[in-house]
Amino acid sequence: MDKLIDKAVTMGVSMAGGMLATKVFEFGWKQVTGEEAPKHDEVDNVSIQKALVFAVSSAAISAAVQILSQRGAKTASAKIRGAYGKQSEV
């Protein structure tokens, strides 16, 4: 049961962190460049330099969010387990 709770918490924290990071990154991209973030349907309209900068910065943020969400999920799972006492048995 504890592994199920760990997985559920990890998935929830990762999804929430990913969605939030995406929105913040797109907002920041628009503030810095004055343009919307590149999308799949606009491939021909984006220069290779912008595409590379977008890809590298997006990947770096994604990696950071993944690490931070895993740490946060581990802490949250420990708190949840602590609230219910020792390991639960089913």
From TrEMBL:
Which InterPro entries does the entry mention? Answer: DUF4235 (IPR025329)
The domain of life is Bacteria
Q: Name one Pfam family in it.
A: DUF4235
Recorded protein name is: DUF4235 domain-containing protein
